[in-house]
Amino acid sequence: MKRDQSISGLEIRFQPTDFVYVYENNGPGGVGRDLCTAVIQNIAFVNTSDEKIILDAGGLDVKRGDAVLQSHLIGQDELKKAAQQFHSYHEQGILKAYDFQFQTQRYLQGLEFAQDTTLMPGHAIVVTRKTLLFQGLPDTITVIIKGHDARGKAISSENSLRVVSHTSKNEYHFPVKGTWHVVGTPSLHSHHRWGTLQEFAFDLAKMGKGGLSHSGAGAKLAQFYAYGAPVYAIGDGLVVAARGDVAESDANLQQQGESAEAYFERMLENQQALLAHGFSFTLGNHVILQHAHGEYSRYVHLQQDSVCVQVGDEVTRGQQIANLGHSGNSTEPHLHFDVADSPDLAYSRSIPMTFADIVLWPDDDGSVRHLHLGQIVIAGA
Question: Are 319 and 137 contacting, i.e. CB atoms less than 8 angstroms apart?
Fold first, then answer.
């Protein structure tokens, strides 16, 4: 699609660019059929003119062909709040430290961030995580912004994203075998959905009696049911990244008597320490496989010294590549896994995916294609 370009000095930019993926919300028995969600991660309104521009309001039009199916307002209060937030992030250095999340260095390089709805030349306002629900697939989402210059002359601009429902040409199998609990997913109420890098990622864990993921107090790695489980290649591929020497520690688990608040604060400090060494350190031990059709599978937080492949190896679907672990920025042993459009650890784009070899417990009538938070999966039976 040819994207509309502003001739008024007011531009709309997206990151990621060009299109937005949808994720199906179909329920068992066909409930909610054709229901899907989309998240536009970053929308930037940029002043490329030599004069200041005051933004009034914007909006989204969801279209199929020329027909507008939905319209959503981006009001002045939302624009002002977004401006204040991003300006604060910039002043605190958060945008630089978390560029893998906001990616401003990729599409807003050299720009400043406005404090309010007045855009001086070379300034931008970024609105994040615009969330949409569709019944049936639209073709495009058009973003419109309106404002005026210092003389009161009206200024407007628009730009569009294609809407894509992705189906891989590759057949993938689940990366672990047995019965697993999906504790992180692309569902809207899961943390993964809110970042380009991991938007369609999964966290996989095992549960025991009482819904716990561990025996005893859960203060030792060996007490977690998932710890050390074999991890398998989801499809035939080439190993393009592999690391297995990152240490693990019981100390990175929530300890007996430690409050959730104290543990969260400790883990935040640990995350910041890892980021200081580079983004890849947050992943811990990991493997990345290159598959056909430009897709890459990523297996993260693996057990120390368990990675049994190396860069350049060709692997087959179902081949063991490592064991599940607790390395990097991990709160308990689990497999963080997804498929992406490149091997770049910090700037790739996560891709929606399905598995050909799973059954959902307790019932699976074939209606559910995409996994969601809390589901129980049986794989490799």
Answer: no
136 shares a domain with 58: yes
Provide the residue range defining the domain that includes 105.
10-164
Contact 141, 163 (CB under 8 A): yes
What is the DSSP code (8-state) at residue 339?
A: E
Pick from 294, 291, 252: which is nearest to 269 by CA? 252
| Whether residues 117 and 198 fall in one domain | no
Does residue 172 belong to any structural domain of this protein? no
CA distance 76 to 55: 8
Q: How does residue 4 score in pLDDT terms, banded at 50, 70 and 90?
A: very low
Half-sphere exposure of 206 (CA within 13 A, CB side): 21
Residue written as token pair 């689990």? 334
The amino acid that residue 25 corresponds to is N
Backbone angles phi and psi of 8, in degrees to 5: -100, 0
Region 90-99 average pLDDT:
90
CA separation for the pair 35, 19 (Å, rounded): 19
- Number of domains making up the chain: 2
On whether both 138 and 263 belong to a single domain, the answer is no
CB 43 within 8 A of CB 131: no
Residue 112 · residue 95 · CB < 8 Å: no
Please tell me whether residues 314 and 195 are part of one structural domain: yes
- Give the range among 88-102, 112-126, 317-331 with minimum mean pLDDT: 88-102
Considering the domain architecture, whether residues 158 and 232 belong to the same structural domain is answered as no
Query: Residues 202-217: what's their mean pLDDT?
Result: 92
